[in-house]
Specification:
172 residues; alpha+beta; 4-stranded antiparallel β-sheet; 4-stranded mixed β-sheet; 5 helices
Length: 172
């Protein structure tokens, strides 16, 4: 499948909220003893179709989170959200993690676990069914979810590509 160009150009006018997905303490054993550092995976989004993820590493937790947020702001994509859900079913994989996203009717809520939930809520999706299979590593789950959302096509795009009206996309 061709790589989509859903990158967000400017972050100046966006009101981004950050969510900490996972924090990992890493130990390095040296001659002088153990050195602890922290790795934080962070998801940022404006809850209106824009999301990004970042990984920050530092000696303190707060510094790692701050670096993760800065990395996430450089990594934003735009996602088509249709009536609070996704426009179509989508599957993706990254590493050992496989995910499936399905649109859901209004009132269903976000039926997704930990790392996937953070990404989907940051995008602004309120109703979705999600399933993860394989590895539950938060890093791979976040990357697989972002990959699935990056491949989403809006109903208007599908209609334009097929040369039909938007109404015919859903009825058709």
């Amino acid at each position: 499948m061709a790589k989509r160009n859903n990158k967000v150009k400017s972050t100046n006018d966006l009101e981004l909220k950050d969510r900490l997905v996972a924090i990992n303490r890493v130990t390095k054993v040296t001659k002088g003893g153990r050195t602890f550092t922290f790795a934080a995976i962070v998801v940022v989004g404006n809850e209106d179709g824009v999301v990004g993820w970042g990984l920050g590493k530092a000696n303190e937790v707060t510094a790692a989170i701050a670096k993760g947020v800065e990395a996430a702001k450089k990594n934003l994509i735009r996602v088509p959200v249709h009536k609070g859900t996704i426009p179509h079913e989508q599957e993706a994989k990254f590493g050992g993690s496989r995910i499936i996203l399905k649109p859901a009717s209004h009132g269903t809520g976000v039926k997704a676990g930990g790392a996937m939930r953070a990404v989907l809520e940051s995008v602004g999706i309120t109703d979705v069914l999600a399933k993860s299979k394989g590895s539950s590593n938060p890093h791979n789950l976040v990357k697989a979810t972002i990959a699935a959302l990056d491949e989403m096509r809006s109903p208007a795009t599908v209609a334009q590509n097929r040369g039909i009206s938007v109404g015919q996309v859903f009825n058709g």
